[in-house]
Specification:
This protein has a five-stranded parallel beta sheet, with helices on both faces. Strands 6-7-8-9 form a four-stranded antiparallel beta sheet. Helix 4 links the parallel strand 4 and strand 5. The protein is built from eight helices and eleven strands. The longest helix has 21 residues. By secondary structure, the chain is α/β, with parallel strands linked by helices. It folds into two domains: 125 residues, Response regulator (Rossmann fold), CATH 3.40.50; 93 residues, Arc Repressor Mutant, subunit A (Orthogonal Bundle), CATH 1.10.10.10.
Length: 225
C-alpha cells in the first residue's frame, strides 16, 4: 500500500516514514502543504497523513482542496491542536480521522490500518489527476474544468494527461511524439502543433486563465498564470 506523509519537522517525518515502511507501506513524503497537494494530485494513494501546521498550505486547506477536486483518498490529520473546535474544523474540511500529538506509534498504526481498509475500494477505483481547476479521471476517461465537462478524443486525452503529469516542465515536440504517440518525431510535420491547438481550444478557449503555454523553440508547458 502506498501512503503520502506530509510533515515539516524532519525528525518526526523520518521516524514516521521508517515506522510505516517497517510495517509494509510504501511512503512518499512532502515537507509543506503546496508540495503535498501537487504530489497528491499526480499519484493515487491509499491514505494521506498530514500535519495541520505546515508551511505553504496548512493541512485543513490541503484537505479542502483535495475534496474540491474530487479526491476521496482517506486523510488522517496529525496535530498538537486537540480542542473539539479544532477537530470539527478538520472534519468539516473532509478529514477522516484526527490524531493529537504526542501519540504512540501503535495508535497511529491502528488508525492507518482502519482507514486503509475502509478506503481501499475508493483509492483503487478513483484514479484522479488535477491541475488548477482541471480534473481528470483516468478510469472514466473524463475531463472537467471548473466543473464543466470537456469532451476530448483519445489522443487529446492522452496529451492532456502527459502535460498534467509534467506540469511546470517544458516538454518538446519530440518528447510528446515519443511518450504520447510512441512514434519518432518527424520535424517536417506539424501534427504535434495541430493537436496542442485542438486541446488548447477545448481546455483554454472558454476560460479566463490559460493553462497550456508555448515556449517558442522549446515546446509546451502546463502552468497556471
Amino acid at each position: 500500500m502506498k501512503l503520502l506523509l506530509i510533515e515539516d519537522e524532519p525528525k518526526t517525518l523520518q521516524s514516521l516514514k521508517q515506522g510505516l515502511e517497517e510495517n509494509g507501506f510504501e511512503v512518499d513524503v512532502a515537507y509543506d502543504g503546496l508540495i503535498g497537494l501537487q504530489i497528491a494530485r499526480r499519484n493515487a494513494y491509499q491514505l494521506i497523513i498530514s500535519d495541520i501546521i505546515i508551511p505553504g498550505m496548512n493541512g485543513v486547506e490541503l484537505c479542502r482542496e483535495l475534496r474540491k477536486m474530487g479526491n476521496q483518498t482517506p486523510i488522517l490529520m496529525l496535530t498538537a491542536l486537540g480542542t473539539t473546535d479544532d477537530k470539527v474544523t478538520g472534519f468539516d474540511a473532509g478529514a477522516d480521522d484526527y490524531l493529537v500529538k504526542p501519540f504512540e506509534f501503535k495508535e497511529l498504526m491502528a488508525r492507518v490500518r482502519a482507514l486503509t481498509k475502509r478506503g481501499g475500494n475508493i483509492s483503487q477505483t478513483a484514479q484522479l489527476l488535477g491541475f488548477a481547476d482541471l480534473e481528470v479521471n483516468l478510469d472514466a476517461k473524463t475531463v472537467h474544468r471548473s466543473g464543466v465537462k470537456i469532451e476530448l478524443t483519445a489522443r487529446e486525452f492522452n496529451l492532456l494527461v502527459y502535460l498534467i503529469r509534467n506540469q511546470g516542465r517544458v516538454v518538446s515536440k519530440a518528447e510528446i511524439a515519443e511518450q504520447v504517440w510512441e512514434i519518432d518525431f518527424d520535424s517536417g510535420t506539424n501534427i504535434i502543433e495541430v493537436y496542442v491547438n485542438y486541446l488548447r481550444k477545448k481546455i483554454d478557449r472558454d476560460f479566463p486563465t490559460k493553462l497550456i503555454h508555448t515556449q517558442f523553440g522549446m515546446g509546451y508547458v502546463l502552468k497556471n498564470e
